[in-house]
Amino acid sequence: MIAAPPENALTEKALAIHRRLCGVYGCPIPYFHDLDPVSELISSLLSHRTRNADSGRAFKALRARFNDWDSLIEAPTDEVQALISGVTWPELKAPRIQAVLRAVRERAGSLDLAFLRDLPVPEARAWLEAIPGVGPKTSAAVLSFSGLRMPALPVDSHHHRVAQRTGLIGAKVDVGPAHAILRAQLPADWDAQKLYDNHEVLMLHGQRCCFYRNPACGGCAVLDLCPTGQARTGARATRESAALHP
């Protein structure tokens, strides 16, 4: 078994990858929207295992139908499901969104999460994750992507894939536990923008180069930092050499 690199080596590697990919994708990266935290919560719940375009259309359909999110809670679940039919698993997400919003209202007294801004990030995330159906990715998205602009690090499937292949996390580390591991590798004093940039550049790299199938390792900006890519390109070179020199 190959021993894991020491923590300081992983931190150096994480920072090197961050700097390299920021050079490729252009940091600081503008935030893609500025929703209030409850709206971001709904948007994040819709986005699970769903393309951004489809979850975006579903969110807009909900906003167009309901004057406020309290009305969504009281609406027939079948109606909510029909409005979000373009997302993955609408039959699960419709009742889940209503249940999560109901829990927020019961615990906070209203559908207003602005108070989270006054809490340390770990406490704010714990408050959100105490609600059934809200996991690490959703809690981080609410704090980071919404108008709260808090220093939390979301990890989506693309980000997670790049982190695994570059060796920042182990091959058996799931997305949920990866949040704490990857955040710990970055400076504790990084602000919301820098953590957002880190998520975005790893996500973009997963979307544009480090594909799930057939990653473009030959053109990867961090190939020299990626054992998976080096193994793939080395194996290819060996096969090509064998074909040329039987």
TrEMBL record:
Keyword field contains rRNA-binding: no
Top-level lineage group: Bacteria
Cofactor(s) demanded: [4Fe-4S] cluster
Keywords of this entry: DNA damage, DNA repair, Glycosidase, Hydrolase, Iron, Iron-sulfur, Metal-binding
A Pfam family hit: HhH-GPD
Single GO MF descriptor: iron-sulfur cluster binding
GO biological process: base-excision repair
HhH-GPD domain span: 46-208
Keyword Cell inner membrane recorded: no
Database matches in InterPro entries: DNA_glycosylase, Endouclease-III_FeS-bd_BS, HhH-GPD_domain, HhH_base_excis_C
Family: Belongs to the Nth/MutY family.
Protein name: Fe-S cluster assembly protein HesB
